[in-house]
Amino acid sequence: MRIRALLRYSTAMALAIGAAPSLAAGQDGLAAVQGNPNSAEATSTQPNDVIADQATGTSGQDASDTGLADIVVTAQRRAENLQRAAIAVTAVTGDTLVRAGVTDTLQLTRVAPALQITTLAGSATQFYLRGVGNFTSNSLSDAAVAVNLDGVTIARSSAVQGFFYDLERIEVLKGPQGTLYGRNATGGAINIITAKPRAGELGGYATVEYGNYDQIRGTAAINLPAGDNGAFRVSGFWSDRDGFYTDGSGDEEIRALRVQGAAQLTDAFKLTVGGDVAHVGGKGAGVSVRGLDRDAYIGVADPRAGALYEATFAPLAGDFLNALPDTQYQNNLYWGMYAQADMDTAIGTVTLLPAYRDATIRFLGYGGSFAFQDELKDEQLSAEVRLASNGGGPLSYILGGYYLDERIAERANFNQQYFAPYVDFDSRTKSYAGFARLTLKVTDALRLVGGARYTIDDKSALMDSFNVVVICAPVLPPPGQSRCPNTPSLPVQLRVPGFLLDPATGNPLPFPIRYGPAAGPGGTSLVSTTRSTITPSRTFKKLTYRLGFEVDVAPQSLLYGTFETGFKSGGFFATVDNPVYEPETIDAFTLGMKNRFLDNRLQLNLEAFWWNYKDQQVSHFRTSSAGGTEFITENVGKSRIRGFEVEGRARVAQGTTLNATVQYLDAKYQNFFYQNPATLGPPVTGCAVTGPAAGQFTINCSGRRPYNAPEWALTGGVEQVFELGGGSRITFNADGRYQSKIYTGFEQLPAELQKGYFIGDVQVQYEFGEPRISVAGFVNNVTDKSAVQFAQPHPRAAFNPVTQTSGLITEALRPPRVYGIRVGYKF
E strands of 576-655, at which residues? Predict the structure, then answer.
């Protein structure tokens, strides 16, 4: 019923756009910003408004100008010059995203140094910003870094694919968010802003790209006028690419379409509606196995990787692991719609933003070193209302309310061969929030800022988990490396295998169940089954706030400082013990300065930050008391994260622009203890271990650096434009990113340490004046560096506590060298 109602509502609004009346002559395009974007009080409150060339995603001045281009952002719910935004934000324009080949979330790391992003099986995406993040591999945990599409929060991090085309820009906000945005976020937010319809204009573009790995991509968009004050925009994306790995995984198969309409219906009322749909197929994310040649990208289903599986002993089962079959796939469908109504009133602009999103996710992958099969259905209905002042007086304000209703049904099999949970998760979240941001103009140069948010999250779940463990009889007792050879692994499927169930009741058969052939005296494999059904529910409430100041110390120099608190509510995980984890919070201090010098030729931005992270939620695998494996989320104490970021841009000559960003990160776990049952011996970890005591090992990671938190992250680049006359030009770009060593897995094993590395990209583009055709050649990852972005030990593999290594570790690698040619036409 909700979907049909939204469809009727959106259709009615689209018809209204087509019938938009003409306004007075001189009306600017729908994407124009009200007021002066260089002012600290630009009055537009519409998060989709931009000053931009919609066909290319470029922003601000022409490349031939002598000064630096401006970028307009809406990170604070007002359109403003990036240099006048008193907030820690990185903005990446659409043309930069195209040049970097960004078509999914994983590649954002190359253009935003504060971000670390990993992709596991299917669409399971993990976001970390300055060491703050969470391993969200199922529907029971929320991401610490929020993703917003045109102002609409995407609640599930597995549903953020298929958006990265025809974009105006992406904004990466660093630090806790909540006094301006839909959902709370402790680490930050990624705002994806699509190109919008422009009133009264007919135009568009198309690009086609071909490269190695048989990569074929196409992007197209057209802007269609609807009267003088309305327009429609239709854009699409199509991509096919063979896999980077030898088993065909790591491929790309995307089909996406977006339709938007906008109209200035009256002098005071503007309406924007949009819908998008995307299908992501192919095999999905790939992994290799540690010990193989990384440069060869040997996939986990390759026989060479299979040989390492077959040489890995699983102690409790008394047999070796089996090679993994080449059965990976993903079949994911995402779609959604939104409507944004903006009405100017005497007290400010009222904005209403209802939205609906739907994700149907089906995949089988090996990202966690074992087979992970999943079917997930996610529906989210959200609504946001805001009142924003017009900035005309000493006090400006934004007041708002937010509502989210998310329902998830998930069926999964985390199959580790000799242990397999067959699970059903049904969860629901209702989130309510009120927020406000006030800015007081004390003098012409000084402004004080205050904000607050009160959040109520109601969460409930039904978790039905059927856990199956294969046990070699001779290990019970005494334990040892006993053999039960030729024991078959448990089947990879979503439903519980019938031979484990009582046909009369459907309940688990009692232990023991004979499984596999006998092998000598006592060499019988047995099956132990347990079933747990729990229905937890909790309400989490929290008041968060923001205090800050802004000072114009010179006409083009802004000094700002903030203290902001962040909150992410707790939730549940599947266990027979206590299934609830508590909320996490963060206190963030920021001091920053943004400057332009030398007649707008030099830009230098500085930011220092200090975050105190409390009750941090950490998701990881551990041994269960019954000999199985649990994926749990728990609160582990405190972390301290501090450092600085320096960003510079310089127009050193007409047509020559340099840019560089340096981030230093001093991150440390201050209080990080957790426990692991002693069922299978010492835990797989690089941290200090004591015990066992009372059947538990205690792991102490205090004093260690969090994983996915490099000490140094640097980006830099040069752009050289050669004007040829008649509107033609040649543009050369060279960009690079360096990051220092990081731990790529929660366990912080020495084998999970990725040394520092550098990745560079180059592009040369020729643009014709008439017709408006461009031809570009590009190479990404010029040196063909194979770097690990995520590592995971197999939970059932033997572990050597002396060498601190697991018998088998899988590694997800960043993309290898990719090169090709791109041809574009704009009209």
Answer: 580-581, 584-597, 602-614, 617-623, 629-635, 637-653
